[in-house]
Design brief:
Elements (H helix, E strand, L loop, with lengths): L5 H16 L1 H5 L2 H21 L2 H23 L8 H15 L1 H4 L7 H15 L16 H12 L18 H18 L3 H23 L3
Helix pairs in contact: 1-4, 3-4, 8-9
Protein name: Nucleoside triphosphate hydrolase
GO biological process, one term: TTP catabolic process
Keywords: Hydrolase
């Protein structure tokens, strides 16, 4: 079980002092931090997928710093201000609601049954939404967004399924159709299209570096 420690409290205090005493940090806004959040998230994903535990620990720390930074900025704002305690409290309350089989009387003995409880709780929380697309960010990477949208489309009767990919796309539109069809295959097989491409790109990166080493190029 994770217990609050002096190290966690020290991280919160460190963030407070940095925001208070660092000229650069004092002027930073939520929007200013977005590029760093994207970068740190990508670096954590890389550490996870390459199995680098030491790097993963460091990148989790960097991502935690982003959470603390946003909470510290919000704590100093007027109006609907919140702090890291509010963030943690809201998270705990949400997770308790979404796990009635852990914290309540509901029963779930399989992952599928767990998802039923999770989705029911989430639907109750988001009852004001009018579309299955509400809450889906268009800023997701394209392959990940395609996989997400295909999942949403499956819950809407009558939504057109992606066409079979043409053997050799002859236009950009056909290329888009082919890519979506491949993502549909990934979803049907339970694969992660975005992760699959990242993995292949890492192999290509290694190949390029190996060739550069053999050729003595930079």
């Amino acid at each position: 079980m994770i217990e609050p420690t002096d190290a966690v409290r020290a991280a919160v205090e460190t963030m407070h002092l940095v925001r208070e005493r660092c000229a650069w940090s004092r002027r930073i806004t939520h929007r200013d931090l977005v590029p760093y959040l994207i970068e740190e998230s990508a670096e954590l994903i890389e550490a996870i997928e390459t199995g680098d535990a030491a790097e993963m620990r460091e990148e989790l720390g960097d991502l935690l710093w982003q959470v603390l930074f946003h909470a510290e900025i919000a704590a100093g704002e007027r109006g609907e201000a919140f702090d890291i305690d509010d963030v943690a409290r809201g998270l705990s309350e949400k997770m308790i609601r979404r796990h009635p089989h852990v914290f309540g009387d509901a029963v779930a003995t399989t992952p599928e049954e767990v998802l039923v409880h999770w989705n029911a709780a989430k639907a109750a929380e988001k009852s004001a939404r009018t579309s299955v697309l509400d809450g889906v960010s268009a800023r997701m990477p394209s392959l990940a967004l395609a996989q997400k949208l295909l999942g949403k489309a499956a819950s809407v009767p009558g939504t057109a399924a992606p066409a079979t990919a043409p053997g050799a796309p002859a236009s950009e539109d056909q290329l888009g159709e082919a890519l979506l069809a491949l993502v549909a295959v990934a979803r049907a097989e339970g694969w992660d299209a975005e992760r699959a491409l990242r993995s292949r790109l890492r192999s290509l990166t290694d190949d390029i570096r190996a060739q550069e080493g053999r050729a003595g190029t930079v």
